[in-house]
TrEMBL record:
Family stated for the protein in its record: Belongs to the complex I 24 kDa subunit family.
Cofactor detail note: Binds 1 [2Fe-2S] cluster.
Taxon lineage: Bacteria, Thermotogati, Thermotogota, Thermotogae, Petrotogales
Molecular function GO terms recorded: 2 iron, 2 sulfur cluster binding; metal ion binding; oxidoreductase activity
Record-linked InterPro entries: NADP_DH_HndA-like, NuoE-like, NuoE_dom, NuoE_N, Thioredoxin-like_sf
Keyword list, A-Z: 2Fe-2S, Iron, Iron-sulfur, Metal-binding
Binding-site residues, [2Fe-2S] cluster: 65, 70, 106, 110
Entry-linked Gene3D superfamilies: Glutaredoxin, NADH-quinone oxidoreductase subunit E
Name under which the protein is recorded: NADH-quinone oxidoreductase, E subunit
Native organism: Marinitoga piezophila (strain DSM 14283 / JCM 11233 / KA3)
Length: 139
């Protein structure tokens, strides 16, 4: 007999992430017990979807495109300047949880590189100096 749950698993995961900014280990354990599923299976679901995160993330998610066209337009220099300014590497979050840096494959503006995204706002033809200036405006 199939079990009935108050809400679908993905909805529950979204609620937790909206509350904490990520899905903490203790919540994963709680959900796995409540649903009678192995923790590894729940991790499989969480890691399958790129919108879920198991580590705290910054208030501002900085994504810099490193696809071929952006790379040819020196996105590497933008990334290096951001890393130096924030003191973090790709996939990391600043200690104050203000910024998370992600190097991504494509942001869909291939003719306008380098491309940078802060949360949901796109910036095109970004220079390293402009990137730092944009980050300073977030503070």
């Amino acid at each position: 007999m199939e079990k009935f749950y108050e809400k679908p698993l993905l909805d529950e995961l979204h609620e937790i992430q909206n509350t904490y900014g990520y899905i903490p280990e203790e919540q994963i354990i709680r959900i796995a017990k409540k649903r009678g599923m192995p923790k590894s299976e729940l991790y499989g679901v969480i890691t399958f979807y790129s919108m879920f995160h198991t580590k705290p993330r910054g208030r501002y998610i900085i994504r810099v495109c490193n696809s071929l066209s952006c790379h040819l337009n020196n996105s590497k220099n933008v990334v290096e300047m951001i890393k130096e300014y924030l003191g973090i590497d790709s996939g990391e979050t600043t200690k104050d949880r203000k910024f998370t840096l992600e190097i991504v494959e494509c942001l869909g503006h291939c003719g306008e590189g380098p491309v940078m995204m802060i949360n949901n706002k796109i910036y095109t033809k970004v220079t390293p100096q402009q990137a730092v200036s944009l980050l300073k405006n977030c503070i």
